[in-house]
Prior knowledge:
The chain contains 11 helices and 2 strands; from the N terminus they run αααααααααααββ.
Amino acid sequence: MHLIIRLAIAxxxxxxxxxxxxxxxxxSDNHFQGAVNGMITNQIAITQGALANSANxxxxxxxxxxxxxxxxxxxxxxxxxxxxxxVSLERRRANLARFIAKSRKVDPKGAAAMAQLTxxxxxxxxxxxxxxxxGLRVDDxxxxxxxxxxxxxxxxxxxxxxxxxxxxxxxxxxxLQAITTTPEFARADDAAKQEYAEALLVQAAMIxxxxxxxxxxxxxxxxxxxxxxxGARASGLNLDAMTLTPTGFVLR
Length: 252
C-alpha cells in the first residue's frame, strides 16, 4: 500500500476494523457512483481500442517497432475545475457522522473507535497533507477517486505497491476524464462532490489500514480482498477486469 497514507492515518490502524468494513463504499447511497464506475470501464475500453488502431497503423509504417501505452488525454483547465469543490468543515463533520452511522451496522466496534478518532483530529486534512507531494488534493473528486481506485485494486489483488507521482497522475487523468464526462456528475453541487470525495478518501484510508494491520495473515488478506471486490462490484466496478500499469489502468 501507499506509504504516504500509512503515515497520515496511523491512528486508523488502531481501530478494531474487520474485513467487512472494506465493503462499505460510502456513508450514503451516492446517486452517481455507479455511473462513474461504468464510465471508468467504458473510457478504458475506448482508449485501448483507439490505441490498438493507432498501434496497428504505426506497425504497418514501422514494422517491428512496439507502441508505448498511452495515458488518458491531458486534463484541461475546465475539466480540472469541474472536479473540484469548495470545502465546508461543517459538511465534513456531517459526512463523517453519516459514515460512522452506516459503519455501525456492519462493524459497531470499529464505528465507535472511528467516532472517537474523528472527534480528536481532522483525518481528511491529514490525508490531504500526505497527498500533496504527489499532486493530489482532497478537494478534487478525481484525486479522491484515484486514491480509492488504486488502493482498492491493490487490496483486491493482495498487493502493497508504492506508486510514484507519475503513476498517480496517469490514473488521475483516467479518473478525471471519466468523472467529468458522467452526466450525473455534471449536475452535482459542492455538497454532493464533497460527500463523494470524502467517502472515497476515508474508504481508501480504511483499506490501507486493514492491509497494513492484517496483510501478513494470508487468510485475513483473502477476506479483505474479497470484501473490497464485493464493495467495488456492488457499485459497478470489476477490479478483476483491469490491470494497473505504470501509465494507468488497462483492461485485461
